[in-house]
Structure formats: C-alpha cells, structure tokens
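[Discussion] Sanity-checking designs against the backbone

I'm trying to build intuition for which residues belong where. Below is a structure token string of 501 positions. I'd appreciate it if someone posts a full sequence so I can compare it with mine line by line.
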C-alpha cells in the first residue's frame, strides 16, 4: 500500500522564521547538512555578487542609444550647429564677394574659377585627412584644431593682394573647413539617441545653410560699406574666438573613448553628464562594436561587405555637391546676368540657403521614421522637377526667390542626407573615416561644379540652359541613393549579428 503523506501543521510566517534557525537543509551531493538560514545567506551573497558584477558592466553603445534627449544632447547639438554655421559662412563667402572682386580688380568671370575651385580642393583634402586623424586621435582635437585653423586662414585671406595669393589662402582655409564639418557631425551622431540620430545630424547641418544665408544677408550690408574684405575678416575672427570656447566645453566622443580604451576618467565623467551616477571607477565598459585588428579604416570601408554602399555614397554626394556648388558659386552672377541687381541676386542666393535650412530639419525627421534611401530618392526627384520649372518659366523677383527656395530645400537637404546615411551605416571604428572620405570625394564634385559653371558661362549659355543642366547630376544621385539603400538594407543586419557575437 502507498504510504500516506503526513500533513504538516500550518505555521505563520513569524513561526516559520523562528523555526528556520533549528531547521536544516541538505545540499545535494556529499555536502554536509547546513542550517537553512546559512543556505539562504549563501544564496543571497551569490545573488548580490552577480548583481554587482552586472552593475559594474556598461554597454556604451546601448547606453547612448537608449538615453532620452537631455540637456547634454542639446549642448552637443548647439556646438555642432555653431561649427557648421561658421563653416557655411566661410565656404560660401567667395560666391557672395565674387561680383565685388570682379568689379574692384577688373578681372573676368573665368579668372575667378581657380579661386573658387582651390577653396573646394582644400575642402576635399581636409576631409580626406581629417577623418583618419579623428579615428586615431579623437574627434574633439580635430574639430577644435580645424576651426582655429580655418579662422586664421580666412583672416589672412582678407589681405590678399591678387588672385594668386587669394587662391592659395582659400585652399588653406578649405583644409580646416573640410576637416571640421564631417567630424563635428560624426561626434554628434555618436552621442545621439538612436531614434533621433538622423535628425540630430541634419539639424547640425542646418548650420551650414544658416551660415551661408547669413553670409548673403551680411554681404548686402558690409560689402557696399566696408568692401569685400570685411566678409573674410568676419569669417576669420569669429571662428578663432569660438575655437577657444570649444576647448573648454566640447567633450570627446564616448564611443571613441570606449573603442580605444583610453581616457577612462574622461569616459566616466562624460557618461555621468548624460545620466548622473551611471558609471564609476569600478565600471567595466563594453563596446558593442569591436575594432578590426591589423586592418585600417580605409581598407575596411572599401572591402566587402561595405564596398557597394561606400561607392554609392561617394557617387551620390559627388553629384549632389556638384549641383549645390554650381549654384553656390555662380547663382549670384547668373541672376545678375538675368537683369537683376547685385543686391537682388544676393537675396535670391540667400533664399536657397534658407530653403536648405528648413529642408535639413524635415529630411532628418523623415529619415528617422521612414527608409532613408526612399526619402532621398523622393526629395531628389522633387529637385529635378523644380529645376525644370525654374529653367522653363520666367519669374519676377518674388517668384524667382520662391523657386530657388524650393530648389535649395531639396538639394541642400539631400546633401545633408548623405552624411546622415553614412553616420548611420558605418560602425564606430570607421565612422569618422567613412564619413570624412565620403565628404572628401564629394568635394571633388563641388570642384567640378565650380569649373563646369565657369565653362558654361564662358559659352554664353542662357539662364534656362544653365539651370536645366542640373538635372543630369541630380539624376545620377537618384540612382546612387537607390543602389546604396538596397545594399545597406542587406548588409546592416549582418553587421549587427556579427557585433553581437
């Protein structure tokens, strides 16, 4: 017969607690019998040690991705925005002062081509060198040094006695400008919460169009009163002063510090600024993205599986910047040749930058919510439509300003969109290099845009023909956005799975 189970008397929790001191428990195996309260203490100790070990580990990537948008993120965004405002002012300055230089130095339009192109060539070289330097020495050092350098070179440019010296000084100014832009955006993207990343990058790039628009409005006031040199003076003094501000308030990228295993105290300090008491001296930092030992960032981004996306980004930004800098460099002159005054031409050119500023904000919001390449394709298609309308229809000043506003909305925003796509695609060990090299290659498109504009103007093309020619590079950028988007959608899941193992 089965043995009957004895019913245990019902005890209150206080009675069970008191009885615990006299009850024993046998641990499985050959362990000796221990009192129950000792077993509970041992288990509690193990749980506490496990919790302490987990508490000492902090995944930097996951931490930054999941934080709410705080005052710290606002600080990073404002500082990046200010850097790009100064960049935009200096880069586009030559386009606004070009008619005054032609008038004062009595030179032809074609003679200004080398001056405009040398500045853009400096931008390309600065971007190509600034990215690898930032991946090696840090984003913060490169951004601060670049801002100070381009401010100093712009200041010296104002005393140029002839076109040859001015061309050299604009090249040197471009070196600093090229290094500062992509690295400021990279630093911001590495601090941005995941759901705001594209928005944060594109808002920062609003600074470029704000600075360019400010240069247009300021030039209408300063050039007539103080000469074209005053624009270069302003573009030099302000960045030099701001570089000292950055030295005190701009932090290094937390992801860079975690990847390089250097500056532990700086990493703890900056993470605690984002969220107080999130890290201390005992915290073990974990980087979700691992460095590829023995392989340089440049070699990584041009090899599989990144090659196709890298080439698409290069071609897309090349064509986009060809369009933008064709307009930035020659639009004031094209408009004056269409029977508008110099001040009216400056207002038209400024409206392109105002439209770009609004477009940067909107495209960042769209890219955080929809597939990035589809947003880019749709915006570029709209740009081609506006270019055709602008080329085919005659407008009054108000109508011309409106159409240029819409064209600038599309072309400047997609110009920024390529940077957001690169910052979202490349992993940390190659992000600064990948973004900067894309920018550097794109700058050769800007150089081409300036040269092509000079050649077409020398052929006496009409306003309509000049604007219609923009549909060619815009079409090529659409194809690049499609290819890059399809390939990145296939590669990113593979990269995430590799990083998690």
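Best answer:
Here's mine. Compare freely.
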């Amino acid at each position: 017969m089965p043995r009957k189970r004895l019913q245990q008397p019902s005890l209150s929790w206080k009675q069970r607690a008191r009885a615990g001191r006299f009850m024993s428990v046998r641990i499985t195996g050959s362990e000796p019998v221990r009192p129950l309260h000792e077993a509970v203490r041992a288990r509690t100790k193990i749980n506490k040690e496990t919790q302490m070990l987990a508490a000492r580990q902090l995944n930097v990537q996951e931490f930054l991705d999941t934080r709410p948008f705080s005052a710290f993120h606002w600080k990073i965004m404002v500082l990046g925005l200010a850097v790009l405002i100064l960049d935009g002012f200096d880069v586009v300055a030559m386009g606004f002062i070009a008619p005054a230089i032609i008038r004062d130095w009595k030179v032809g339009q074609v003679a200004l081509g080398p001056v405009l192109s040398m500045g853009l060539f400096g931008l390309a070289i600065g971007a190509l060198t600034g990215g690898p330097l930032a991946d090696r020495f840090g984003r913060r050092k490169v951004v601060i040094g670049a801002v100070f350098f381009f401010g100093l070179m712009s200041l010296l440019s104002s005393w140029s006695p002839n076109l040859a010296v001015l061309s050299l000084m604009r090249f040197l100014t471009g070196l600093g400008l090229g290094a500062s832009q992509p690295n400021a955006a990279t630093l911001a993207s590495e601090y941005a919460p995941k759901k705001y990343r594209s928005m944060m990058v594109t808002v920062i790039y609003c600074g470029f169009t704000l600075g360019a628009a400010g240069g247009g409005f300021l030039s209408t006031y300063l050039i007539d009163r103080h000469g074209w040199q005053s624009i270069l003076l302003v573009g030099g003094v302000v960045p030099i002063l701001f570089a000292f501000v950055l030295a005190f308030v701009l932090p290094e990228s937390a992801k860079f510090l975690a990847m390089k295993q250097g500056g532990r105290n700086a990493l703890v300090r900056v993470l605690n600024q984002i969220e107080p008491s999130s890290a201390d001296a005992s915290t073990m930092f974990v980087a979700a993205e691992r460095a590829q030992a023995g392989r340089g960032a440049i070699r990584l981004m041009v090899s599989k599986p990144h090659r196709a996306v890298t080439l698409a980004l290069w071609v897309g930004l090349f064509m986009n910047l060809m369009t933008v800098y064709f307009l930035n460099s020659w639009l004031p002159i094209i408009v004056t040749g269409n029977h508008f005054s110099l001040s009216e031409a400056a207002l038209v050119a400024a409206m392109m930058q105002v439209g770009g500023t609004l477009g940067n904000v909107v495209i960042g919001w769209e890219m955080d919510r929809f597939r990035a390449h589809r947003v880019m394709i749709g915006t570029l298609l709209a740009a081609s439509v506006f270019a055709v309308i602008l080329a085919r229809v005659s407008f009054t000043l108000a109508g011309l300003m409106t159409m240029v506003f819409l064209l600038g909305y599309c072309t400047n925003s997609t110009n920024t969109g390529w940077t957001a796509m690169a910052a979202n695609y490349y992993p940390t060990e190659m992000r600064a290099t990948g973004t900067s090299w894309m920018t550097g290659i794109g700058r050769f498109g800007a150089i081409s845009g300036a040269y092509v504009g000079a050649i077409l103007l020398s052929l006496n093309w009409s306003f309509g023909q000049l604007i219609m020619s923009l549909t060619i590079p815009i079409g090529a950028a659409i194809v690049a956005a499609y290819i890059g988007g399809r390939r990145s959608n296939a590669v990113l899941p593979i990269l995430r799975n590799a990083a998690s193992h």
